[in-house]
Amino acid sequence: MDMLLRRLLMARIRLLFVVFIVCVPMEVMGKAGNANVSSSRPSVVNIGALFTLNSVIGRAAKRALAAAVDDVNSDSSILKGTKLNFIIVDTNCSGFIGTMEALRLVENDVVAAIGPQSSGIAHVISHVVNELHVPLLSFGATDPTLSSLQYPYLIRTTQSDYFQMFAIADLVTYFGWREVIAVFVDDDYGRSGISVLGDALAKKRSKISYKAAFNPGATKNAINDLLVEINLMESRVYVVHVNPDSGLQIFSVAQKLGMMSKGYVWIATDWLPSVLDSTEPVDTNTMNLLQGVVALRHYTPDTDMKTRFLSRWNNLKYKDRKGPAGFNSYALFAYDSVWLAARALDAFFNEGGIVSFSDDPKLQDGNESSLNLSLLRVFNEGQQYLQTLLRMNFTGVSGQIQFDPDKNLVHPAYDIINIGGTGSRRIGYWSNHSGLSIVPPEILYGKPSNTSPSNQHLYTTIWPGENPEVPRGWVFPNNGKPLRIAVPNRASYRDFVSKDKNPPGVKGYCIDVFEAAINLLPYPVPRTYILYGDGKRNPSYNGLVDAVAQNTYDAAVGDIAVVTNRTKIVDFTQPYMESGLVVVAPVKEVKSSAWAFLKPFTVQMWCVTGAFFLLVGTVVWILEHRINHEFRGPPRQQLITVFWFSFSTMFFSHRENTASTLGRLVVIIWLFVVLIINSSYTASLTSILTVQELTSGIGGIDSLISSSEPIGVQDGSFTWNYLVQELNIAESRLVKLKNQDEYFSALKLGPKSGGVAAIVDELPYIELFLSDSNCAFRTVGQEFTKSGWGFAFQKDSPLAVDLSTAILQLSENGDLQKIHNKWLTRAECSMQINEVDSSRLSLSSFWGLFLICGLACFIALTIFFCRVLCQYRKFAVEEGQVAEVEEIQPARPRRALFSALFGDLGLLFNYCNFGSPT
């Protein structure tokens, strides 16, 4: 019985085994074993492609991909013995469907997948190919974030939007705009591109003032509401970064809203040229929507390879009955993607690579899963094949196919096109090598990189409204809110700015300048003036500027000094009045003394002049004594003659005549020197005796700092902070003064009676104060800071730039001076103290004249003594000849020799003075 049961059990086991063998598919049996390994050169290799077939990019890409596969399979020089099996799936512009189709595609053991065109789908599919080690060659996903390390198996075979956004930033800078409004689709593609644009603009000191995002597939009403909102803003420069299949709807709505007229700027990314290039024939209605738009298009060099491809494209373009397959730049990138995969496979096989797939334990189906993830297998040599792809370097129809370390194509470049009429024209190029240029990029690659502003060039652009002039790029916001302008409610110096009972509620010099500048603007600026301060004391101007920076006010108009710490938080216009800090001090008149006639010259000048009088008299006596009897006589008489001749030349009243040429030369030069000295002395003495001389105990800011006396400053002015922070003056020394009366009384009292030693304030206030105080005080020292008054606006306000231009225009046409004369003309005072020492003439002003006179005397004496020496030698020779005839005398003693020597010297002296002895 036990034996029978055992045999029955064995029979059932055999039956179950047979059933298992029959029912289980053979392909599953194969997968249950080890890795399925093909030969090193398989006859067929699967290549996949996934993209939205029925789209602007997809229709062109499908034709290009099919043509590329046919060209590779028919080329005997590549992939010898191996054919590409091309598998296409449709992502249907859906992230979910795209993911499902990607999973279905990789079930076919593809070694590479080409696509997708959508950046959003690329983000999702990248996780699939990362897991299965299948390289993904995307010809249309331009999202800059896809270059990150998170997606190692994604290779972008087109240009990244990173470079396109920097090209737009260069365009914005080239035309002088500071703010743009970004209109974009709110998905990975739109958000990432605009994020890079913001960074690129920031490097150019510009910015995105507003980000206008809309959902993919937004209705026309939603787009209308969005454009109405941004039309109320001040910026008129719009950057449109959307999908090709829905982007034209934005311009259709913009035209109905009047936003395609003069003054507007529209910059479109590469999606717009893709739409236009794919549309044949040209749609007149579409072109009417886009007049004046500037767009970027991928730049591809004009090569023979590209020309042949375009010729083939034109011959095949009507064979697709599902819809027009118009050509665009993405077709070139798709075509090169297939060739990149094929060339890399060929190199992979030549290096001994094999194609093999294996199961991934992480993808095995669970007990409750019905997704059949076990059908997905890992490309074992995927990493090796990926590295082969990245080191490829060849020339395709789109240009050079080579990758940099960040997996971006080298030499990114774009065409800058301007749409007008029934087509578009290229106005220049952009490349990261040279920026904006009218020269093709490949020509510039051989030259050093140069992106300086002076090297940026474009052809003339026609803007919306057929406007050849570059639009300003902004207008005053048309949202019904007037400009909030803060005006200091001053307690002193009300001529500059003050409260007024009549509209607009304020008046003064500063208000008139601002109103005149506003009237020169080519657009209206609704505004309302708001007083800042209580009017009982001057408000804090630092607080006023801070309020503008914190958006409490849109601008501040008044006597606001442009100083460093304020320029860090607000923007100022061109200064409309010069300013700077000066020191005002009480002065006293210097009374003339009995010795005032000595003041024109310094002591050193008097001494040198007297010395030269004696020197010239002596030199003339030496030169004239031998031959001029007027310079002879007893020693006393000759000494009197020297002094008389010297000092009488001061008045040109000398009676002695000069007979020698050298003497006359010296006298002529000396008389010229005397003429200059007399004229200067007379002018200086006249000035000293006729001009009121004032003096003060304070010599300027330096002497004020070194003292310990109190200093007056205007209440609310930046002067307090400057003296304390910059000049390190103790706060206890500073006294705040509210108005001109306090200025006057503080200076009159002086430091010993409770007043101040001096007042430090800005020059415009001091000029007004001195004229109102009947010139009772004076400024001392020099103006020790240089600044000006300007109008303050919030940072990056374009109104500040336009008003600066208007202020310059007011200055050039004379209106600024007329406004100044209306409010600030007073009795003129001599601002500066006439310092006595500064008017005295010193030796430094005349040393050149004395040098010329001294050289003349030296040269004359040298010539004179040389002539005398020659005559003496001639006389000595004659005497020697006479001595030879006489008898030789006996030797004389030493004393006799010395007597003879001194006798000869006396003879020479007599010869010099009296001529030949008789």
Q: Summarize this, please?
A:
The protein has 30 helices and 34 strands. By secondary structure, it is α/β, with parallel strands linked by helices. Helix 7 links the parallel strand 7 and strand 8 (207-214).
Characterise this structure.
This protein has 918 residues and is of the alpha/beta class. It is 44% helix and 16% strand. The chain has 30 helices and 34 strands. The strands form nine sheets. The chain has an eight-stranded mixed sheet, sandwiched between helices. Strands 3-2-4-5-6 form a five-stranded parallel sheet. Helix 7 (188-203) links the parallel strand 7 (179-185) and strand 8. Helix 3 (56-74) packs parallel to helix 13. The model is unreliable at 1-6, 11-39, 891-909 and 911-918 (pLDDT under 50).
